[in-house]
Amino acid sequence: MSVPKCPHEGCKSELGVESCKKFLPPMLIEMLQGRIKEASIPVTEKVYCPYPRCSALMSRSEISEEYAKNAFVGSERSGARKCIKCHGLFCINCKVPWHNAMTCSDYKILNPNIPAEDLKLNSLATKNKWRQCGKCNNMIEHTEGCWHMTCICGHEFCYNCGAERKNNRPTCSCPAWDVRRIWFDNHGDFDDDDLF
């Protein structure tokens, strides 16, 4: 998202958040600031607080390691970080609240169950045939066009099978698009005889 432009016809000036405070309610100003911050952080740098009551967005570079370094020996290797909003400790590697006195491997062995929220998302993704980017794990929905996808992180892959594209070429043998889907979207019911 970019900074909004002046709504006056022909004016190309950008509206700063400060100038919008004069006519937007505080809730919308806060939302605008959040959207601008979200757009300014590269996908691979985004970190969300794992505490449900917080869920603050942070960049990897702004996460405070100081408290974690002072509180835990070797924390920079273990992944302990402190949320900039709620100040809760969490593991940057596991994306969960801090697992004290436990390595990430031990935590994963002792907590093999996927959280209910993740199960719901995975179920919704399966139902809607969404794909997950192999690089940044963002969910992607194919709405039209060929199977060649470029995620917002820049990773290119085949939506049909998930194979990565290398040197601007597919590494799979999937067709470029689904003929049945194109026909159905434009004509309704599909019959194999419609191809010929």
Automatic annotation (TrEMBL):
It comes from the Eukaryota. SMART domains: IBR (SM00647). It catalyses: [E2 ubiquitin-conjugating enzyme]-S-ubiquitinyl-L-cysteine + [acceptor protein]-L-lysine = [E2 ubiquitin-conjugating enzyme]-L-cysteine + [acceptor protein]-N(6)-ubiquitinyl-L-lysine. GO terms for molecular function: ubiquitin protein ligase activity; zinc ion binding. Pfam families: IBR (PF01485). This is RBR-type E3 ubiquitin transferase. Keywords: Metal-binding, Repeat, Transferase, Ubl conjugation pathway, Zinc, Zinc-finger.
